[in-house]
Design brief:
Protein name: Transcriptional regulator, contains Arc/MetJ-type RHH (Ribbon-helix-helix) DNA-binding domain
Shape: elongated
Number of strands: 0
Number of helices: 6
Distance between the termini: 107 Å
Organism: Halorubrum sodomense
Strand content: under 5%
Low-confidence stretches: 66-71
Helix content: 40-55%
Length: about 150
């Protein structure tokens, strides 16, 4: 290994020391090696971390990868927003059973995306039935009379 001297602001060093004191890292050196490897592995596609037990340290100290808002990284079905657009299109055309079939065939029961799609479909169905109801005429109002 090569020794390198790096200057850090005092608050940064204090936070690193607290992580070491809490047992997140064995030493400040382990923290510095891990953090450098972590940034390099995220920046360079071909970089392979050299820190001993890098994967174990990463799984212990790094929170679960943040999910991108609206991301479908863990979804088994089609991309969610494409599904929303398709269900909406079918619902606007009054093809509610086709939309239900799509949801049933693309998602497992209880999948969070399926639940949301079914709720969207329910709202479109309610709007459609509200549009089919005859409008009730408003009661006629009597003309105001003047008292003298």
């Amino acid at each position: 290994m090569v020794k390198s001297t790096v200057r850090f602001p005092e608050p940064v060093v204090e936070e690193i020391e607290s992580l070491v004191d809490e047992g997140e890292f064995e030493s400040k050196s382990e923290f510095y090696r891990f953090s450098a490897d972590y940034v390099l592995s995220r920046t360079l596609d071909e970089y392979d971390p050299a820190t001993i037990d890098y994967d174990a340290i990463e799984s212990e100290v790094m929170p679960e990868a943040e999910r991108e808002l609206g991301g479908d990284a863990d979804a088994d079905g089609p991309p969610f927003f494409e599904s929303v657009a398709f269900v909406r299109k079918l619902a606007l055309r009054g093809k509610f059973s086709d939309a239900e079939d799509f949801i049933d065939h693309q998602y497992v029961p209880g999948d969070r995306h399926a639940v949301l799609l079914e709720e969207i479909l329910r709202l479109y169905r309610e709007d459609a039935t509200a549009d089919d109801r005859p409008s009730t005429p408003e009661p006629e109002q009597e003309a105001p009379t003047r008292n003298r």
